[in-house]
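USER: Please consider what follows.
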Amino acid sequence: MKRPRLSFWQIWNMSFGFLGIQFGFALQNANVSRILQTFGAEVGHLSLFWLAAPITGMIVQPIIGHYSDKTWNRLGRRRPYFLTGAILTAIALILMPNAGAFTGILSPLFIGAGFLMIMDASINVAMEPFRALVADNLPDEQRTKGFSIQTLLIGIGAVVGSALPYILSDWLGLEKVAPEGIVPENVKWSFYVGAVVLLSSIIWTVVRTKEYSPEEIASFSDHHPSETEAEQHKRNGFMQILHDFIHMPATMRQLGFVQFFSWIALFGMWVFTTPAIAQHIYGVAADDTKSVAFNNAGNWVGILFSVYNGVAMVFALCLIPIANRIGRRGTHSVALLIGGLSLISIFFIKDHNLLLLPMVGVGIAWASILAMPYAMLAGSLPIHKIGVYMGLFNFFITIPQVVNGFFGGLMIEHLFGGRAIFALVFSGCCMLLGAISVLFVKEKTA
């Protein structure tokens, strides 16, 4: 029996919660380095604080994927997890910019890093089941469409989330400068709004989306678990996850190289764009975190991130006809090529307004990164293990971030002379390697 096709609005409602997840994720990406610098972090140490995010994701996502495959209750299979993740993320969004209020426990810098860890772990709890939900509910011929609509909604959330601090300060008059060690009001209120948007959008998906029962899911596959697989099913969670990782499908392993280069690039961009633009464009000293110029740079980075997410939102709709014409591999390779060259080009720009141009290329790459690898992967996964493999696939996102987290700051300090702009050049080179490696992926459909 084949999965029934879903209408556009069914796919939209199923993916709508991702708008809120990405709203919160965009606030994190555009502002956490700025917040940590406000609390006293040095530029060369930023990537170490950001390690909290990928390490928690590496632990959380496979576990959530494994247990969501085995869950079924009144809320369904995946929905209990992303509802729980949404509640926890909303709490973390409220607490993160207020880390200074907990100075009686630890320094605000370490409290802020702790809230970053909680926030990212919670986002991962919410995010992974959404990927699995698309694979659960859509036939193979609709998966590119499903992940593209998901990317469209991700773009909407990210555009508004990234630009919100700028909108609140420059349009609505909230303060964008605060005393040393205090997060400005425009950033604080952006995080409060993000908490509300995230929670309400997840609730929309929970209420408006139907999930197939385990029996219906099983009926969509010609594969029936063998006696050996039934014995494997009885293993404890950790051993089963380890077994599944060792025996991952070949397509997943090949995509791992693509993801490694793509996400080492993205992590470098998210962590170092604010100090890079502050130094390279605004002429701000590395230890300056309270000047008007530094905060203008931080707000402008929010706009830049909003632009690339806006481009991704629009380009997500183009992925479907392009992939139909040149294939998923070709589409992803070209997109990563454009993104890599765009990141490298930032080094040659001196006018902050011209930075909008490379963000167009980054947006094209980001749209493809959010959709194409998952569309290529889904057809190769056993139907009864989609959740755990989507979670394990996150290893190829988190491991490169951990690598960059340990070495990115050291490279800036010891190789680049403290100039964060070269972290963006390095990110662009890594994305070019991703464009090459995707050509060696062999797809399988189901």
Remarks:
- The mean pLDDT is 87.
- Residues 13 and 208 are 6 Å apart (CA to CA).
- The chain has 17 helices and no strands.
